[in-house]
Design brief:
24% of the residues lie in helices and 32% in strands. It is built from four helices and seven strands, in the order E-H-H-E-E-E-H-E-H-E-E. It has helices at residues 28-41, 53-60, 116-128, 145-153, and strands at 18-22, 70-76, 82-90, 100-107, 135-141, 157-168, 171-181.
Length: 186
Amino acid sequence: MTEKTQDATPAGRQDDGAAVRPFRNSDLDEINAIYNHYVKTGHAVFDERPRRRDEAEAWMAQYAASGPHRLLVAAEGGEGPVIGWASSQIYRAHPSFRHSVETSIMIAPDARARGLGSRLYAALFDILETEEVHRVYAGVASPNPASCALHEKFGFRKVGEYSEYAIKHGEWISSTWFEKRLDWTP
């Protein structure tokens, strides 16, 4: 896998020793460890088995240094361990949805309540404001009041709920869906 890096963002803010920066291929294992933590411990991720490295590489390949599909990380000191990430990915594969993206955000369990989610989303939306993105969507598995509050803080509005539409470890999962207007027009 060739080293791929995204352009630096103006929101590469650094507060408590963590900095937001574009992903690097060398971040893959740490990003995947955060993802797999939530696979094993809850319903924020619907996968029922940990994601293998080759699957994570395929997932990471969708992100680029330009365009609407980005992946940012929060890293200790900017170069240290990855302790969170936020992404904007394809909303639907159909070309009619090319100006819509879906966002995801995950924070390592021992790095929560440090404001990293806000810093990651601020940086991501700084980028998306410059891209040809008209709408941003996010699904939040219920209950998750902290994630709902984060999305509302960043201008998302609740547009609906999918009731018991997924099952993981024998438990039905519902999700609240949010939409953010960016209003890019061709």
